[in-house]
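dumping this here so i dont lose it
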């Protein structure tokens, strides 16, 4: 009788689970804990990588995960886990998993080895189709093992690179791309396949192919035009500093050795806007560190540099920490003086107020935004 009762209870529990949406593990559950449960229950692991500010993340949580059909498919097969990628536990995990967009959904086996991943919000049917597709082991672990064992056959590298791109693993894809381009730094521009490998996958400014291209952009520009090459160089140099600044406990650290190497590289490349990348890194670092004295110092150095130009929107972004508190009255006054000088330059015709950012037309000219920020620093109106 006891055995029959337990069986009935188990059946009732299974039916109840199928009649609801996705059941997620309690907040604070780690991937390691989910792995232990997945092993015990012979399940896979589904991880929802989200942030609190991500609109599509909220839509999935509100409209898709609670659906009965979604729960009926997911709950019997997966230990479902949600982790805020900006939380104390989630931030280093995001870096480890190379999560760069939200939401990202990752499927692991019970040992917490990744099987597949996909990005973005969707309807329930499309979501379930993606889960089913990415739950099939695509042998990426086998390809990874071949890579780690030193296999550098070009055909294999192309296959592995395609798998990494499908999994959005940018750091690993860069390593494989570097191997594909090894020894071809001066010739890859003439090969359409290798050009695509470079443009899509090289993210390391110290890659030989990147250094050669930054010094000799004309070869690649002759094949694909000026703008794509210039944007590629800019994007790589802008992306790298994010990797050498780490945030924790409300502050930040800068890997000084890597920063010094980066500055030496900028000097070697002899780019006219090299100081932009150096100073932008320091401005970002001191903002995250909440060291507003140095933050202001490097903003002022940037604005005094005749080779650089901060547009109105950049000024508006820089003023944000001062308008939100934390800075001293003297620091706020210094930032207000910067804004007032820009407004005076616009009034005197030395500069034009912006009406667009990229291809987007602004609802009001930037001079109005800057004046509003001056009023905020004066305490005349709240932060916009």
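and the seq i came up w/
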């Amino acid at each position: 009788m006891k055995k029959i009762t337990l069986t009935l209870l188990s059946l009732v529990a299974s039916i109840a689970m199928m009649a609801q949406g996705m059941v997620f593990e309690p907040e604070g559950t780690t991937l390691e804990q989910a792995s232990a449960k997945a092993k015990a229950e012979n399940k896979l692991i589904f991880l929802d990588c989200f942030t609190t500010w991500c609109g599509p993340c909220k839509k999935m949580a509100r409209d898709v995960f609670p659906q009965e059909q979604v729960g009926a498919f997911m709950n019997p097969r997966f230990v479902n886990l949600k982790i805020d990628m900006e939380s104390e536990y989630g931030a280093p995990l995001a870096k480890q998993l190379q999560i760069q967009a939200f939401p990202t959904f990752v499927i692991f086996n019970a040992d917490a080895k990744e099987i597949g991943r996909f990005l973005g919000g969707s309807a329930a049917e499309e979501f379930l189709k993606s889960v089913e597709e990415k739950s099939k082991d695509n042998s990426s672990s086998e390809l990874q093992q071949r890579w780690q064992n030193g296999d550098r056959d070009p055909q294999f590298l192309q296959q592995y690179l395609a798998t990494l791109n499908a999994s959005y693993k940018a750091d690993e894809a860069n390593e494989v791309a570097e191997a594909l381009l090894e020894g071809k730094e001066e010739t890859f521009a003439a090969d359409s396949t290798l050009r695509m490998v470079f443009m899509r996958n090289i993210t390391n400014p110290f890659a030989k192919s990147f250094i050669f291209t930054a010094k000799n952009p004309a070869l690649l520009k002759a094949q694909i035009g000026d703008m794509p090459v210039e944007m590629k160089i800019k994007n790589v140099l802008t992306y790298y500093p994010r990797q050498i600044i780490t945030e924790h406990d409300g502050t930040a650290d800068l890997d000084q050795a890597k920063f010094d190497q980066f500055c030496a590289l900028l000097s070697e490349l002899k780019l006219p806007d090299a100081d932009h990348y150096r100073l932008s890194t320091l401005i970002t670092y001191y903002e995250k560190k909440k060291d507003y004295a140095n933050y202001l110092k490097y903003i002022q150095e940037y604005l005094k540099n005749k080779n650089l130009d901060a547009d109105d929107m950049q000024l508006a972004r820089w003023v944000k920490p001062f308008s939100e508190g934390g800075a001293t009255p003297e620091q706020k006054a210094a930032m207000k003086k910067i804004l007032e000088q820009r407004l005076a330059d616009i009034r005197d015709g030395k500069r034009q107020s912006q009406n667009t950012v990229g291809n987007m037309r602004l609802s009001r000219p930037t001079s109005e935004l800057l004046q509003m920020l001056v009023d905020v620093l004066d305490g005349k109106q709240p932060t916009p």
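The CA atoms of residues 316 and 373 lie 8 Å apart.
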